[in-house]
Amino acid sequence: MDTDILLQAVVQGLLIGSTYGTVALGLGLIYSVSGVVNFSHGDFLSLAMFISYALYAAFALDPYASVFITFPVLAIAGGAVYWTLIRPVISGHLLMIIQLTLGLNLILQNGMLMVFGGQPLRVPSIMETKLLIMGDVIMRWPLVIAFCASIVLAGLLFLMLSRTDFGRSIRAVHQNPKAAALMGVNVARVRILVFALGIGLLAIAGALLLPGTPLHPSMGLRYTVITLLTLVLGGMTNFVGILLGGLVIGLSEAIGTIYVSGILGMILPYLILVLILLFRPAGLLGKA
Predict the structure, then answer these.
(1) Which CATH architecture has domain 1-279?
(2) What are the distances in angstroms from CA 10 to CA 96, 244, 247, 255?
């Protein structure tokens, strides 16, 4: 086994895995306070990327700069979706929410198809072709930036949850919504703000993923599947575990692509998920 190729695969997997962790952080935040698993999560990520594309087409705005516009747009859209569609059925059967978010998936996907067409698109960035070379390891700067941003984002979320009144409200709703309401926490307000924040975070993830990524309206499903894998692997509500889960998925993808031939290489992340859950049913850092 060539150690240089292995090292390159490990570094590439870690960098890509960090972006998966960033995408899954938003869903983990939403699930922690509402119990909602949003099956249209990846399509909101696609929406963020297509809005960035529209901003580039109209104003030649770099994806990294467009996040200052896409974040509030996605956050407002997320809050509106929760208030108008999810809140009325949140106390209903789990299948209702699953059907609802799957319906959103179809609406978003077909809406983007109607507006932007079915041809692959791309959004150039000033960092797209930049490389960072360290010895025998070659890294794309966009992935290095995404890795650093993921760490910073996770740290900021941790500080928000542990040091702010809003974070304490989130933790209270996560632990026991009824007890939180008795203590004066406005549970509905916390849930709508968290849903808005969780969807808004996809604007940041979309900007980090965009350089070098071809856009297509149907790509949201892939990100939804990866996000769910990452979320389950990380323990659903443990943010450190979710980031760790993203790194495991990224690593297994990179190593599977290089060292495992055929279809087995593509399903390696799923096999690793099953193996880990056999020994850790609650995820890497989840509590049984």
Answers:
(1) Orthogonal Bundle (1.10)
(2) 40, 14, 10, 7
